[in-house]
């Protein structure tokens, strides 16, 4: 069924990241849906290792300039855009000097997770939602990929719960085996600032616990990796949300 508006929210995408299944799958899904005549947009963080010069990123002034309050601090939202190399598919990058300039993705060089990974995820989720609204583009399908994207449905169903903008959008969550790490113990205070509380994931906040939490906030879950690790597989099997086993790229449109 062409002519759907499909929004991919992802933490990785080839060729901006090259060596993961997640990055490859998102690239193939987005391109296939785009080439079949759908209106496809991709949103991802502008991590510091993504070369603006190589990939010809440029700032979209009309979309930038908003401030997002995280933990009582104003953080400026910068939106950059590029076309996927060799394609007419637009990729939007959520950027902020404080959160995304560093060259590493989630971990220090010694393997220690960044203390502000929670704030970065909150900023990314809210930045995507606010930018979509500013674009005045209402997606039919929102497809989430990567642990940071799992904050999006939590925010849509709580903080933005009375906002009707996304009310008809169906949300799909792809679950991948990502490296897990704990999130700051102060995340509950930061979410409380946005009137979000009573999340099971806050008992032991981590990348993985928020992916598992988000399974209850979406319309459909699909395995992004054919075999999931024990915790994710257990949560996947126990979830009452509609679910699909691993689908190849050619089959993804049947899910939509």
Would you give an account of this structure?
There is one protein chain. This protein is an alpha/beta fold and 256 residues long. 30% of the residues lie in helices and 21% in strands. It has helices at 21-35, 52-55, 97-100, 117-135, 151-157, 187-193, 207-214, 230-238, 252-255; strands spanning 5-10, 39-45, 58-59, 67-70, 73-76, 78-83, 90-95, 141-145, 170-175, 220-223, 242-244. The strands form 2 sheets. It has a 9-stranded mixed sheet. The longest helix has 19 residues, at 117-135. It is globular. It starts with a strand and ends with a helix. The mean pLDDT is 95.
Number of beta-strand segments: 11
Q: Taking Cα atoms only, what radius of gyration do you get, to the nearest Å?
A: 17 Å
Q: How would the global form be characterised?
A: globular
Helix content: 25-40%
Rounded mean pLDDT is: 95
Strands side by side in the biggest sheet: 3-6-7-2-1-8-9-10-11
Residue ranges: pLDDT <50 for 5 or more in a row? none
Q: What does the secondary structure layout of this molecule look like, with pairings?
A:
Elements: E1 5-10, H1 21-35, E2 39-45, H2 52-55, E3 58-59, E4 67-70, E5 73-76, E6 78-83, E7 90-95, H3 97-100, H4 117-135, E8 141-145, H5 151-157, E9 170-175, H6 187-193, H7 207-214, E10 220-223, H8 230-238, E11 242-244, H9 252-255
Parallel strand pairs: 1-2, 1-8, 2-7, 8-9, 9-10, 10-11
Antiparallel strand pairs: 3-6, 4-5, 6-7
Task: Record keyword descriptors for this entry.
256 residues, glycosyltransferase, EC 2.4.1.21, nine-stranded mixed sheet, Starch_synth_cat_dom, transferase, 21% strand, 11 strands, alpha/beta, two-stranded antiparallel sheet
């Amino acid at each position: 069924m062409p002519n759907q508006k499909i929004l991919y929210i992802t933490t990785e995408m080839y060729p901006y990241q090259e060596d993961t299944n997640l990055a490859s799958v998102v690239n193939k899904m987005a391109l296939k849906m785009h080439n079949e005549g759908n209106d496809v947009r991709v949103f991802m963080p502008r991590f510091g290792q993504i070369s603006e010069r190589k990939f010809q990123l440029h700032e979209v002034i009309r979309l930038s300039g908003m401030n997002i309050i995280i933990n009582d601090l104003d953080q400026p939202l910068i939106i950059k855009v590029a076309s996927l190399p060799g394609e007419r598919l637009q990729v939007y990058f959520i950027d902020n000097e404080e959160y995304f300039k560093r060259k590493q993705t989630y971990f220090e060089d010694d393997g220690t997770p960044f203390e502000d990974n929670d704030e970065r995820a909150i900023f990314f989720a809210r930045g995507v939602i606010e930018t979509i609204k500013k674009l005045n583009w209402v997606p039919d399908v929102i497809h989430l990929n990567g642990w940071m994207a799992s904050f999006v449905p939590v925010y849509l169903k709580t903080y933005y719960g009375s906002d009707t903008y996304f009310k008809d959008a169906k949300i799909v969550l792809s679950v991948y085996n990502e490296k897990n790490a704990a999130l700051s113990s102060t995340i509950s205070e930061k979410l409380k600032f946005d009137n979000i509380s009573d999340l099971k994931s806050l008992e032991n906040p981590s990348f993985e616990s928020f992916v598992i939490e988000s399974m209850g906030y979406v319309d459909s879950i699909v395995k992004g990796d054919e075999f999931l690790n024990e915790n994710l597989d257990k949560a996947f099997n126990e979830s009452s949300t509609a679910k699909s086993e691993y689908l190849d790229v050619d089959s993804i449109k049947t899910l939509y």
